[in-house]
Amino acid sequence: MTTWPAVLFALLAAASNALATVLQRRAARTVPLSAGLRLGLLVDLLHRAVWLGGMLAVVAAACFQALALSQGALSVVQPLFVLELPLALLFGRVLLGGRIPRSGWVGVGLLVVGLGSALAAAAPTIGTAHAPFDRWVPALAVCAAVIVTAVGAALRRGAGGVRAACFAGATAVGYALTAAMLKDATHAWQTGGPAAFFSTWQTYGFALTGVLAIFLLENAMQSGPLTASQPVLTLGDALVSLSLGVTLYDERVRTGWWLLPEAAGVALVLWGAVLLSRVALARDLTGAQDEAPAVVHEGTEPGAADT
């Protein structure tokens, strides 16, 4: 396995995901609004070429991610997905007509510089292509415990920033775990072909975990402002992926004094993510709410909403 093909495929996957977000958002603007669930929504979208283009971009992103994970380290591939938001902003500016303010461009610069410096300082090694089952057991147990704890904490809070951040944390763990299982599943395809791919448990594991992560992400977006969820999701996915790469696939990063530039890079990524999450176009693309909706319980006055 080599690094540069993995970086290239990871960037293509991030770009494809960003394009899918913009195309699906544009398609959603063309269908009639309804107060509740409408079964005809999918039929309406199927008749729109822009929505079909978005779905093709999703498929392309999955293929590029699988290729990236088959060629490089999990701790290199997943952090590159933090570029999805700035890429979506750039695509959205062209296709949706939104405007990126100066603070947004500063956020893009901070995120790119921070990510590059952090990865350069960490210099993750590739490690192994397959994780033995005895390593998967504790990794799955810890990830499941973190997700359950984060979701439980979110459900105990009313709508707002804390609830959104908790759901985003659970989503980040889900995304990282999905990528880790996808890496093992692609190894099965490489060594045994389609038969091995569809007979390994990681294939079904990443499919189920991926669906769960998307569900948790939707809850994060609906629970509170993007400024609360996006930084947690951005850093959480990268850091959990790094941890899984080290524990499952023997990937290594530099320590010692290298921790200083690594921490500085992470701080720049966090700063950039916060700035980007405040851009109006970003909130439009994700469908996130600027403010948490008031939750009024039965038997209470409107002013006594949960906080």
Content-based structural category: mainly alpha
Number of strands: 0
Strand content range:
under 5%
User: What sequence of helices (H) and strands (E) makes up the elements?
Assistant: HHHHHHHHHHHH
**Unreliable runs:** 33-38, 291-307
Mean pLDDT: 83
Largest sheet: none
Shape: globular
The helix count comes to 12
Spatial gap, N to C terminus: 50 Å
**Helix percentage:** over 70%
Radius of gyration: 20 Å
What report would you give on this structure?
This protein is mainly α. 74% of the residues lie in helices and 0% in strands. The protein has 12 helices and no strands. α7 packs antiparallel against α8. The longest helix is centred in the middle third of the chain and has 39 residues. The C terminus is likely disordered.
Short description:
This protein is 74% helix and 0% strand. It has helices spanning 4-28, 40-46, 49-71, 74-77, 84-95, 102-122, 133-155, 161-199, 201-223, 226-249, 259-277, 280-286. Helix 1 crosses helix 5 (84-95).
Topology readout:
Elements: H1 4-28, H2 40-46, H3 49-71, H4 74-77, H5 84-95, H6 102-122, H7 133-155, H8 161-199, H9 201-223, H10 226-249, H11 259-277, H12 280-286
Which features characterize this protein?
mainly alpha; 307 residues; globular
